[in-house]
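Note to self: keep these together.
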Amino acid sequence: MTTLVFVHGWSVTNTATYGALPLRLQQQAAAQGVALTVTDLWLSEYVSFDDVVTMPDLVRAFDHALRDLHLLDASFACITHSTGGPVVREWLRAQRERPGTFSTIRLTHLMMLAPANFGSALAQLGKSVLGRLRSWFDGVEPGQRILDWLELGSTESLSLNLDHIHGDDPLGRGQYLFVLTGDRPDRALYDHINSYTGEDGSDGVVRMAAANLNARHAVLAHDSGTLEDSLSLQVTRAPRTAFKLIPGASHSGSAKGIMQAAPKTTLDALLRCLQVKDAAGYHQLCDTFDAENDQRDADKVELEPVGPFTPRVHIHDPRSLLIVRLTDESGEPLPGAKLLLNAGTPPNPDWMPQGFMLDRQANSRQSQVISLFLNHDLLAGSARVPDPSNSRKTLRPAVDAHRPYSVSVEPADLDGLVHHAIAAMASGNDLLDALGPHQTTVLDVVLPRKVHEGVFRLTRNLTPEDFSHPAAGPAIPG
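Structure:
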């Protein structure tokens, strides 16, 4: 018997958000012989729309609510939607880091539907005047503190995800994590005021790359023994996580929503997840999901009907989310620094493939953290894309890769007692090696900090001497 807990997303105020998924999942499970009875299904009701409530508050309350279930075998499985994924992942981290404070209840299967693991580009809209007006008309606050977590590149979300990337494989703890996300927006729900709701590469709210936990942490920093203005690239990959694209599903809505509409593809994927019992079965399902994703990526053209006019063409290339943090070796942020992406040898920003940059967004609380949404297929090189209704017609000609790709940084302060110098990625490195299709990469660009001897001098001159305008002198060796 499996106890299954459902956890909803941000701004939800009614359990109708779960739609028919709990009942249909129970019915489908019974048909396949998976033990799920009515008394084993629990629907969460948590508050994300109060400006005072923080993510740690939700984690603490979630732990208390679990204790009240009095689980017979002290274990459960969980299906989350949207922000519910990060909430439960934060709870898992709290369990590991504070075992004396949080319960020892064991989560076996965490199935995340459209999780905002790396946040959502829409979080800034939620914090805007429009978002506040919408919340005011609904009689609730927008949930400022949760939206802060959800903003792309937030300190809180990056902390959780970098812990995951550099941490132990959850399989070693007997935990099976799964990410299932829709592959396109519901065009009927498009908000003409905000184009993010119809953004290709997302489900209308969360980008596929931002949902995926198969992420990477890349560090671009000076390496001893190389030129001072040369930055070397090192990449760390997260433990493998099962990732499944649900074709045709969107983030929400009763027609195409991955949870509320309860499409058969969602039900089938969830039941396959629930039936994983060991590491071998988990890796096998990862392989199966990868093969199904490849098949979906091969069928990438969507022709959107536009009334009496020519259909609107959407080419669903795999995208990459690159979250760049600009700091120096002391951890100081570099506001005003200019980051350039270059292609070819010698590096040239004008050689980047046309259309590779889809969006950029700076974090509102940390301007030195920038999220770049990139077309991975155009960077890697793409074959000709034919019209599915007429294979002789070309929707997009073949695109060659312009590798290697590199990064150069021009800081705002190029001189002074303490300053930074222009730096570039070392030759032989390729930024594309740090990017993955439908994946997020956190890129830390770390510049050497130039401290000159004029900052601190010793003198034997006992006569009073004015040093309010010191000469910088040479830089102190690092």
